[in-house]
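Final report, Chapter 2: Outcomes

The project's central promise was a pipeline that accepts a single protein chain and returns its three-dimensional structure in a standardized token representation, suitable for archiving and comparison. That pipeline is now operational. To close this chapter, we reproduce one record exactly as it appears in the project archive, with the input sequence first and the structure output second.
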Amino acid sequence: MSTSKSDGSDRRYSDICGATNNRDEPCKLPAGWGTPGSGGRRCRFHGGCSTGPSETSHLEGNDFAEGNPGGGAPKGNANAEIHGGFSDWQKAYERFDEETKAHVDRLRECMRETAKANAPDVPEERRERLIKEKATLSVLWKRAAADTLGTPENPVDGARGIVIEEEYEHNGETYTIEKANPAWKANHILSGRQRQIAKELRLWPGFQE
């Protein structure tokens, strides 16, 4: 595995990785950085080492596989989407029903003039994208927050609470363990990203000069 910097002689490093990082910027590591072989574009942190599935026969006839008609999580699947807090925001928006999309559009309208007035230096295309992202994230944030209300003993409107119980089997025995509700982590991630956008677009008074 090569991790050396490019000196211009290695064709793998003639371009950057380019994958979008968590700062919504293209990864500037050299294409193929840290990956074996040659010809790859992504760096090792963004899938450059992936060779894809070795075989796909296990997906044949699986109605729940992505792309198959009726695909989705089976009933009782603990990993089924509850709040969407870890979803790609664009995919989450596409899954919203029409009423929720209309709500997102109203939020965008409320932010548009403020962003235009306070952040004229941000290109319009990027400004619109960030506004839509923040409006979408606000919906996901509320869902994640609602899922953490209450406690397992006293749930609020079906919320699971901050601590949830999970059953698993081992050697024929069923055990119950307590763990943190993943929605709690999603809540913090969504809050942080919304704050980043609000700062760049100067949407909140504290970020306005």
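Archive annotation: The beta strands are 163-170, 173-180.
This record, like all others produced under the grant, will remain available to the consortium after the project formally closes.
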